[in-house]
Amino acid sequence: MMQRPKRLIRQPQQRPTARQPLERELRRLQDNMLVMGSRVSHNITDAVDILRNHDLDAAIQLIADDRLVNAQRHQMEADCLSLIATQNPIARDLRIIAAVLAIVTELERINDYAKGIAKVTRKVGKEPLLPPTPDLPRMAVKAQGMLRRALFAFTERDVALAYAIANLDDEVDALYNQIYADLVSEVIQCPSVAAHANYYLWAAHNLERTGDRALNICERVIFTVTGKLVELDHIAPDGDLEG
């Protein structure tokens, strides 16, 4: 007896959900933000290395490259506004977009600090009156580490890490205070180096502000996950809010 051919059972095709385009665009926004963050992160430590080596050519190039970071920020802002207009995000999705808008602004400001350090190199010139304090590179590495951790905390939506980074800012501030004391001591011993000491203090101040901007990013991590705005510079080391 001839057997009938078996009928193939077709699996139902999964239709794309309404959220898929939004989720895809949110991932793209985050990836582009990380690319921008990587550039800015490298510029911070590069700027201090340029200052240590008195590399005027590299300083000029870093200053000129600031326009690339500015362009990245403007493109990211346009992408965020377009996403709001076309996808109608709500609740947490809207907080993510708002956070990206805030974070790219912080990144652009941090790159301005790197540019400022490159300008210090140009002012100091090839024949510095005193060498840069050895704490300056250590401060740059710590500030860079805060920035990288803050961006990682955002990608992972890691609130605990965001709070932990607040304690690292104390280390950056301590190095700034040490640099300030060392430079004051140098000026007392040799008043003629006052101008150059002021330039190095300017560079240290930019690194201290980089740490503060990283804390602002951490605040956006907390807001994205919890919907609450927290000021991390008011968090004491034991986690209690300071008055």
What's the arrangement of secondary structure elements?
Layout: H1 19-53, H2 56-87, H3 91-124, H4 135-156, H5 159-189, H6 194-226
Helix pairs in contact: 1-2, 1-3, 1-4, 2-3, 3-6, 4-5, 4-6, 5-6
Explain the overall architecture:
- By secondary structure, this protein is mainly alpha-helical.
- The chain has one domain (22-234): Methane Monooxygenase Hydroxylase, Chain G, domain 1 (Up-down Bundle), CATH 1.20.58.
- Helices cover 77% and strands 0% of the residues.
- It has six helices and no strands.
- The protein has helices at 19-53, 56-87, 91-124, 135-156, 159-189, 194-226.
Low-confidence stretches: 236-243
Q: What's the rounded overall pLDDT mean?
A: 88
**Helical amount:** over 70%
Structure summary, number of beta strands: 0
Give the overall shape, derived from the CA principal axes. Answer: elongated
Largest sheet: none
CATH topology: Methane Monooxygenase Hydroxylase, Chain G, domain 1
Ends apart, CA distance between termini:
91 Å
State the helix count: 6
Q: What is the CATH class designation?
A: Mainly Alpha
Class by helix and strand content?
A: mainly alpha
Whole-number tally of structural domains: 1
CATH superfamily: Phosphate transport system protein phou homolog 2, domain 2
Beta-sheet strand percentage? under 5%
The radius of gyration computed from the alpha-carbon positions, rounded to a whole number of angstroms, is 24 Å
CATH-defined architecture:
Up-down Bundle
> What is the N-to-C order of secondary-structure elements (H for helix, E for strand)?
HHHHHH
